[in-house]
Amino acid sequence: MIKEKEGLGGHRPKKKSGASPISAKRIAQNPLIASPPSNTLSGRTLPRSPVMLPPVLELYALWHPRDDRQARPLAEALVDHYHGDLFSGLIGGAIEVCFRSEGWGNEADSAPRPLVLPGDAGPLPPAAYGAVLCFLGPGLARAVAQPGPWRDVLQALITRAHHDPNRVILRAVALEGDPLAREPLRGWFGATQLLASPDPLAPKEDRADTLCRDLSQSLAQALTWNAQAPGRIQIFLSHTKHAAPGERESLAAFVAGVRRIIGNTRLGLFFDANVLQPGDDWAQVLERHAATSALLVLRTDHYAERLWCQQEVATAKTLGMPVVVLDALERSESRGSFLLDHAPRLRATKTGPRWDEAPVRRALGVLVDECLKRALWHHQAALAGPEAGVDWWAPHAPEPLTLTHWLNKHPSSRGQRVILHPDPPLTQRETEALEAVAGLAKPPLTLTILTPRTLAARPSSLDRLPLEGKRLGLSASDQVPDLGRRGLDRRHLRLALAEMARLVLLDGGTLAWGGHLEPEGLTPLLLEEVRRYGHSGSGQNTPASDLPLLVVLAWSVHRATPLSVLEATDAQLGSFGRLICLNRTGEEIPFWSERDEAPQPVSDPQSIAESLSALRTTLTTLTCARLMIGGRCQGFTGRAPGLVEEAILSLKAGQPLYLAAGFGGATAEIARTLGLPVDALPQTAPRNPRLDASLAALADQARLTPPRPQRPVPRRSSPPGPHPRPSHLATLVSQGLGRWASSLKTR
């Protein structure tokens, strides 16, 4: 059996890494993470975490299954966009994207799962705003042309949007096939401006990119991204006319090209040469528009040294307006400017003497997304209210310019100030620089600078790192056939798994994972999260108990894996984890033992089942709690579905189980067996007898090991009901684990 206290002596000999010998238990070791703040401020506990607020915006992508070929790629692009890095820093999934296409029932042409819109009752509070993007295709046109479930859904949705237009936002995009040629779609949407409508006179643009930009603009405007200038987003084109004699033509062509591209979008444009009129006080006009517009900086060779260029940037930043820098340096700058830092930056490129259009379009997309993020952030601040305990909801990570401006505008006699800004956290060096600035105040100020995740990872004022010294097991599979009927897909499940792993790491905990090493599997996802949010070990003698991630492979799994893949995974883990390979009975062996490069798969079903059971037993001994999501109910190898067997072993060991039942699969079956509320999904496939037998064994084990009453979160409990919001699910698990860990310390 594996002993956690052992170091890395069993690893294959390698060259020494350049890792510095720093304590492995300091979360500040990862340069992406600032040192964790103290949980009390002179007796004042940390602010209440606002991450459990409902999302500001729930976005539904709605299409008929017969339009799947055209609609699904665009809908998936929306998930990737709004659940990607750009929006991941907001609280609790400020914007959530889910699907409505596959039928909820078993009858022919069944309508999809019902939408939950603002004002609807349910086990979870709805979002403050609900947006529905209808993909208008020939399949939908035929389905609504006659009475039936799909016509009822569309009619009810249109009626709802008509009666509550401020909270229910209905938008549409047309697919190929002229869907508006027939009623009732023509009557419902014929007079409406559609998203991503191609302009035959404009250069062709990727439709998914156009859809994301148009939709972000429409949503930002609907959510009043700027109360001082409501309506259409206006781009302030910040540029200089100064250039070296040989570069003036290139500069003029660049600025003219940017103006032309903006002119082919739905965005407004402030360009001084067009807006300033004879007799205007140009300084006042520039200041007023910089204070109310989204600023696109064209950073050319002489931009940073121009006083009014600096003034425009400073005005936008201090007022929290979106700023994006398009870097078009051709030679060099004589000096830079710190005012241009702490803003998204994209590089303009050339093909020969011509400036490329694609980077400009990307910059505009990022700038529009920044406007939507600003709207979402302000709505979340309003929903949280003063009881959240946050002094400044900074729309961007604070910097000396914005910090000093805010402190001057909001004087206070209190010496402690709490600042919350979107993820990612500031680095330790950045935080120290801001603390030094605050220390110059009279009297000096103490800053606590948090992000949604660092705040969510400190659920108790008693615990600095509540999960320090605790290793959590992850059990997951995204091979869940009913995800589509639930309005989800594999992306949502992977997002939830990544978010749970992230918060465990920020809580100071570590992870154990037993899976496989397929490129499209879940192991690469966990490796990425560990490298971004985990602490690295201090060298080859780091105890396994201190490493953020243990990847444990069953005999049947690693023998079927090429040796080069095992070696690559071991190298990728580096000082962040350890690759552990087991023999048939669960004992650790060197992964290179008695084999060469070629896979040596195990073919005997009995041997495969025994090796998988040995893996699950070993994982239980390495962990103190288990998180579960998804899981196969059909087509599994082994004696029972892997997650069911792991649940039985966890109950035998008296370990807490946290079940993300809303994503379906084996986890939902486990939750239902343990008496937890789960969506009653209509049955469409025959039951697997081995699944039912293993669930009966789980029920028997649960009767033998009832929950201990002193634990505030019993080991058989989970977040109640289905929960399709990955960020909320992860936060529920994080808070439950924090309460459980705190209860262990107070016994």
UniProtKB/TrEMBL annotation:
<feature type="region of interest" description="Disordered">
    <location>
        <begin position="701"/>
        <end position="747"/>
    </location>
</feature>
<dbReference type="InterPro" id="IPR041160">
    <property type="entry name" value="LD_cluster2"/>
</dbReference>
<protein>
    <recommendedName>
        <fullName>TIR domain-containing protein</fullName>
    </recommendedName>
</protein>
<feature type="compositionally biased region" description="Pro residues">
    <location>
        <begin position="706"/>
        <end position="724"/>
    </location>
</feature>
<feature type="region of interest" description="Disordered">
    <location>
        <begin position="1"/>
        <end position="46"/>
    </location>
</feature>
<dbReference type="Pfam" id="PF18163">
    <property type="entry name" value="LD_cluster2"/>
</dbReference>
<dbReference type="InterPro" id="IPR035897">
    <property type="entry name" value="Toll_tir_struct_dom_sf"/>
</dbReference>
